[in-house]
Specification:
alpha/beta, N-terminal domain of TfIIb, Rossmann fold, Dimethylsulfoxide Reductase, domain 2, 7-stranded mixed beta sheet, 23 helices, about 30% helix, globular, binds iron/sulfur cluster
Length: about 700
């Protein structure tokens, strides 16, 4: 008789909410039951369909179970041994380094990698390959909010307060976030806010399911929310509703920022954004009347070629009304990827070292070099940002090691990125499934995933969590940490001792490397994470007997003088505005049943039933003008490419805008259309707005 295995408390493999779940292997050891963990405060037992069905990707019919190497004879990927696959990768990278130099080797990581993997990958790139060319797909997720947060507060942590504060504030402005589809369990916080009498303002060009919940929905033209924020701040100043005492005591730079908003008259802002002045005034009224209030941004304002300034404008609005660093108030970014937060803190971002240290800071280099046992001078400087790195493939970058990312679907101007990947001398991909990017590789390594391994992740609140192994991976599968250990042994024999395969050992080194840095994990241990009831510990947490920091900035901001900075910003147009040839805005986003590039979720039957493919959402008036009816195949065409999908005619979108979700490759790949124009500070591509024409197909 089989005994029922004990459930393992862990966390979802997908988004940054990192919902708590229990995994219970069935008695025969063939499947895993997933249930929400009621004791985890973030989701309190609730899971969305993606989390509920996550175990499907563990099944052997779905996941990769053995290495693949491209056969030079047939040109096809064929099963190979681990030894052969690892030798081929080490050989490919070593050849490139010998022929073209270390910077001709690129490394591309993912926002889903655990903290340990992100840390080890950054260390591997810098001290084994000696390359500066490392970045990750999290650049496409949160970099504008991170840059704006650094500028204003001296520190970037997605939310500087726990989500549990949301229902108790007086007003929330949600800018460019569709929580109802991206993080459904988090919608509860907004429902509770309203039940408590708080007000919700949603800013989105579409009347989404989240916007349906709002007391006030403003639908600006894509790419104009910077002007909207400036218009609101103009009205606050004009009505004398700024918090002068807070501004005097806790900020700098108000005079310049204030001067900048005075040109943004409500009527001008209405012309730019399409939001009528009375609605602008109503938003200002709700926000200013509330004793406590929050501004939360997501990909809408962030994924723009002026994303840093756009987020900066919303931060200025929050600062001018005395919100950041005061109880139940503030500014926060709703990070999207599972470990988008931790991934950027520990060294896989082009300009950062572990602990959120800057690669250009001599003291930071010295500290991390000592932990790594190398000369600080041996550490390369900052490299290219994600899109720039992908764009350089086949040119200055000849070989690429890619872990946990699918840029063929998720990068902007994706057909060009695909062509760049094809032009490489050598491409190695470590992933759980054979993604569209893995299909192009010379070598594919099957690696362990969430339920098959232990590791830490950091959710959107800055809460460090322990994901525990619940099942044993199939025999042909190894962890990313083992891959990096083995590659190091081949490329720099002797150095592999610095690349342990046990996640806890890596984490203990990460703690030392992060000690004293902005994202200080020194006081967080596996033992503590396992013993704390599974609620996690908020960074910074420098001491093992210290409590962690759920709420930041209450006494001072992380700037030298402890004051937040207003940064003067001005509205500017999107990199590409509609014209006679491409007369419509395109904006992109997600649907509830798919996640990111869909590499995992498109392999789950029940999710595919709910969201079987891409679509083009357009307004009935635009549809009538184009002669398009519901279900017609339409092509969305930009200067970079086209995507074809069935039309969905809805009254919930602006008449000048079409929307497509970005989870699919093939003919419906909307990122073939999107614009890679980059923000000058964050290097974020402009996913959220470009000019297109829409054509009926056939
Ligand atoms: Fe997983 Fe995010 Fe869904 Fe929670 S909301 S179950 S973390 S995908």
């Amino acid at each position: 008789m089989h005994t029922q295995p004990a459930p393992t408390p862990t966390h979802c493999p997908y988004c940054a909410l990192q919902c708590g779940m229990q995994l219970t292997p069935d008695a025969a050891g063939e499947g895993v039951a997933v249930t929400g963990r009621a004791d985890f405060p973030v989701n309190r037992g609730a899971l969305c369909g993606k989390g509920q069905s996550a175990a499907a990707v563990l099944s052997r019919g779905v996941r990769l179970t053995g290495p693949l190497v491209r056969d030079p004879g047939t040109g096809r990927l064929a099963p190979a041994t681990w030894e052969a696959a690892l030798d081929a990768i080490a050989g490919g990278l070593a050849r490139t380094r010998a022929l073209h130099g270390a910077d001709a080797c690129g490394v591309f990581g993912g926002g889903g990698l655990t903290n340990e993997k992100a840390y080890a990958l950054g260390k591997f790139a810098r001290i084994v390959l000696g390359t500066s060319q490392i970045d990750y797909n999290g650049r496409f997720c949160m970099s504008s909010a991170a840059a704006a947060g650094q500028r204003a507060f001296g520190l970037d942590r997605g939310l500087p307060f726990p989500l549990e504060d949301l229902p108790r504030t007086g007003c929330v402005i949600l800018v460019g976030s569709n929580l109802a589809e991206t993080m459904p369990p988090a919608l509860r916080y907004l429902t509770e806010l309203k039940a408590n009498g708080g007000k919700l303002i949603v800013i989105d060009p579409r009347r989404t399911r989240t916007a349906e919940q709002a007391d006030l929905h403003l639908a600006p033209r894509p790419g104009t929310d910077l002007a909207l924020a400036l218009g609101m701040l103009h009205l606050l100043v004009a009505e004398g509703r700024t918090d002068e005492a807070y501004i005097r005591e806790r900020t700098r730079g108000w005079a310049e920022a204030r001067a900048g908003v005075m040109a943004h008259w409500p009527e001008y802002v209405e012309r730019v954004t399409g939001v009528p002045v009375p609605r602008l005034r109503a938003a200002v009224g709700l926000f200013a009347d509330a004793e406590t209030a929050m501004v939360l941004t997501a990909r809408g304002p962030e994924q723009q070629s002026k994303g840093t300034d756009t987020v900066g404008a919303w931060i200025n609005l929050a600062l001018a009304t005395g919100r950041p660093g005061t109880p139940l108030s503030g500014y926060g970014c709703l990070t999207g990827q599972g470990n988008g937060q931790g991934g950027r803190e520990h060294g896989q971002k082009a300009d950062q070292l572990p602990g959120y240290r800057k690669l250009t800071d001599p003291a930071a280099r010295a500290h991390v070099a000592e932990v790594w046992g190398v000369d600080p001078a041996a550490l390369p400087g900052p490299g290219r940002s994600a899109y720039e790195l992908l764009d350089a493939l086949g040119g200055e970058i000849r070989s690429l090691l890619l872990m946990g990312s699918n840029p063929v679907v998720s990068a902007p101007r994706a057909a060009h990125v695909e062509e760049r990947l094809r032009s490489l001398d050598f491409l190695a991909v470590a992933d759980v499934v054979l993604s569209e990017t893995a299909e192009l590789a010379d070598v594919v390594l099957p690696v362990t995933q969430w339920a098959e391994e232990t590791g830490t992740v950091t959710n959107l609140e800055g809460r460090v969590l322990l994901r525990r192994r619940a099942i044993t991976a199939p025999p042909g599968v190894r962890s990313d940490l083992e891959v990096l250990h083995e590659l190091t042994a081949r490329l720099s024999p002797g150095l592999e001792k610095g690349f342990p395969v046990e996640p806890e050992e890596v984490f203990d080194e990460l703690r030392r490397a992060s000690a004293g840095g902005p994202a200080d994990y020194a006081g967080i241990s596996y033992e503590r994470l396992a013993a704390d009831g599974g609620e996690g510990v908020f960074w910074p947490c420098p001491a093992t007997d210290g409590p962690g920091t759920p709420r930041l900035f209450l006494d001072r901001f992380a700037t030298e003088d402890g004051r937040a900075r207003f940064v003067p910003v001005a509205h500017r147009a999107a990199a590409e505005e509609p014209d006679a040839e491409y007369p419509v805005y395109l904006t992109t986003g997600r649907v509830v049943a798919q996640y990111q590039s869909g590499a995992q979720t498109r392999r789950v039957d029940e999710l595919n039933k709910a969201a079987p493919g891409p679509f083009v959402e357009l307004h009935p008036r635009l549809a009538a003008r184009l002669g398009v009816v519901e279900g017609d195949e339409v092509a969305v065409v930009s200067r970079r490419g086209r995507a074809v999908a069935p039309a969905r005619v809805v009254g919930t979108i602006r008449v000048d805008t079409v929307f497509m979700p970005f989870h699919w490759g093939g003919a419906g790949r909307v990122n073939a259309v999107t614009n890679p124009a980059l923000d000058p500070v964050s290097r974020m591509p402009e996913f959220k707005v470009c000019a297109v024409r829409v054509e009926r197909v056939g």
